[in-house]
Design goal:
10% strand, six-stranded parallel sheet, alpha/beta, disordered N terminus, 12 helices
């Protein structure tokens, strides 16, 4: 709690009516109604696909062994995520295979490795996360007003490459000028660097940007530490962050109006 208060105390006072040139958006739990933990629902499909790909090249691995390797990979990833670091989906798969047999990755051709990565990464394309029904209209409204839009998202086991395809299938991808995913840049929220990297690509300073996200630490504290204003999304419209956001909305349909209030 002391850390949160300190973070809020060191924020500069922002003048009212400050121009909002950019909005960065969290995905899981914000644009996607499914939270980050829902990514684990794809576990069965991931492992079944990998088992089939390995069997196809003459390598039999029992499901229980793959389950243990998956859990070991989770511990490896968790240790990285705790220090706001991330790795590519290929490294997820290599770690999983090494947990089965340290020599296994070297036994596989480039084609087999690519097939295993697809099996691991792509189940969300078959059963995509649910998107906030008000998101499209809200984002199109902002884009029409000249606000540039970006995604700043931690990935779990579904990589940014696949999330782009999910957004494309939903017709939302063209609305975003920049998409920053933790597995691609190696940085995870709440590290300020992932927000600042995105704003650098947009050419917008932090004081002219607003981040929208649900998580009180990853989104609210992280964006605030990077110098952005923050709108938190919560189901009841009440802030949950120890660091107070600039506004709270229940869903993205309320976003244009909330930004309008921040401009006053």
């Amino acid at each position: 709690m002391q850390t949160a208060r300190s973070a809020e105390a060191r924020l500069p006072r922002r003048p009212s009516g400050r121009l909002i040139r950019a909005v960065t958006l969290d995905l899981w739990g914000t644009l996607f109604l499914d939270g980050p933990g829902s990514d684990e629902r794809y576990k069965r499909q991931r492992l079944a696909g990998m088992e089939a790909e390995l069997a196809g090249v003459g390598i039999a691995v029992a499901p229980a062994r793959l389950e243990r390797a998956y859990a070991a990979t989770g511990r490896f990833l968790g240790s990285l995520w705790q220090v706001n670091r991330d790795v590519s989906v290929r490294e997820h798969v290599v770690a999983l295979l090494e947990a089965v047999d340290p020599a296994l990755p070297d036994r596989l051709s480039a084609e087999s490795m690519a097939a295993l990565i697809r099996a691991y990464a792509s189940p969300a394309l078959v059963a995509p996360p649910v998107i906030d029904p008000g998101a499209r209209k809200a984002l199109e409204t902002l884009a029409a007003e000249g606000v540039v839009l970006a995604v700043v998202s931690n990935t779990m086991r579904t990589p940014g490459e696949v999330v782009r395809q999910v957004l494309d299938q939903a017709g939302l991808l063209p609305l975003f000028q920049v998409l920053t995913f933790s597995d691609e840049c190696g940085i995870r929220k709440p590290a300020p660097a992932i927000f600042l990297r995105t704003l650098t690509y947009l050419g917008v300073p932090p004081e002219d940007a607003v981040h929208v996200g649900d998580d009180p630490i990853l989104d609210v504290e992280g964006a605030r530490d990077a110098g952005l204003r923050v709108i938190q999304t919560t189901s009841d419209g009440c802030a949950t962050a120890p660091v107070k956001p600039d506004a709270v909305i229940r869903h993205l349909g309320e976003l244009p109006a909330a930004l309008g209030r921040l401009r006053r």
